[in-house]
Design goal:
single chain; alpha/beta; ten-stranded mixed β-sheet; globular; Glycosyl transferase family 2
Length: 267
């Protein structure tokens, strides 16, 4: 079987990071996880998970590319595949097609795989706050397909990412069997609390000037409007119905629809 590592960067992630570890240790084993701690206080210390402490500086998307590219290349000297995600991004291979991530990657040609991005949405109204200790997708079974979350996150070669890691200069294959569930919008209460934190961070001048990371700095009202727009698009059917018609991840979009049942117990 191929050797697979998963890495992320984190800062003050008290909710998502434990969930990230729980998810990916099932896929690749805890000893194959790497967390880059960007100056959290207290420092991140998770039993069995390798952590590298980064100095706390300005938040700069170009610096992030340089840092993650360095660590991806370092990991690729020991691993066949490296998965790179944010702490709120959870990759799942279609369990109807593959019994495990390793089985999928064993039969996958070398290169970079681009995931099917799904924004998991808090439907609002009478929905209960998420219980993060319980299966997430059973509580939040609706989502929106998104080009922004269709990331080139799984690679056996060094990846030349663009800012935000949504796309890359490196050629990639859009893999309909590899889904990325983004939990940023899965719980409104957590969404707004996290926004309050990221808005106060020291963002670099060039990131602000180029609009990089802008969604982490918007006013509360703008974020609530974005969530309301997602909710207003609710439609019958499943996201698979839309995906079958899309071969280009850069144009991927959908109404808010049911996440395919096959994934509901995977996260």
């Amino acid at each position: 079987m191929p050797r697979v590592a998963v890495m992320t960067k984190a800062y003050q992630e008290h909710t998502m990071l434990p969930l990230w570890v729980k998810h990916y240790e099932k896929l690749v084993g805890r000893d194959n996880l790497l967390v880059l701690d960007h100056g959290s206080s207290p420092a991140i210390n998770i039993n069995g998970v390798h952590t590298e402490r980064l100095p706390r500086g300005q938040v700069d998307e170009y610096d992030y590319i340089e840092i993650l590219s360095f660590w991806q290349r370092k990991l690729l000297s020991d691993y066949d595949w490296v998965i790179t995600t944010d702490t709120d991004e959870f990759i799942v291979p279609n369990p109807q097609l593959f019994p495990s991530l390793h089985a999928m990657l064993r039969d996958t040609p070398s290169g970079t795989r681009r995931c099917v991005g799904c924004e998991v949405i808090d439907p609002g109204n009478s929905s209960q706050p998420l219980d993060w200790s319980l299966p997430i997708l059973r509580q939040r079974p609706l989502g929106v397909l998104s080009k922004w979350s269709s990331k080139p996150a799984v690679s056996s070669v060094p990846t030349d990412w663009m800012p935000g890691f949504h796309t890359a200069h490196t050629p990639s294959t859009f893999d309909h069997a590899l889904w990325l569930f983004h939990l940023k919008y899965a719980d409104e209460q957590h969404l707004m609390a996290r926004l309050a934190l990221t808005r106060t961070l020291d963002w670099s001048v060039r990131s602000v000037k180029e609009g990089l990371g802008g969604s982490h700095r918007v006013p509360d009202i703008a974020m609530r409007r974005a969530l309301a727009r997602y909710r207003s698009t609710i439609a019958p059917g499943t996201l698979d119905d839309v995906l079958r018609k899309h071969s280009d991840p850069d144009t991927l979009t959908s109404p808010m629809m049911a996440i395919p049942d096959v994934f509901l117990d995977c996260l």
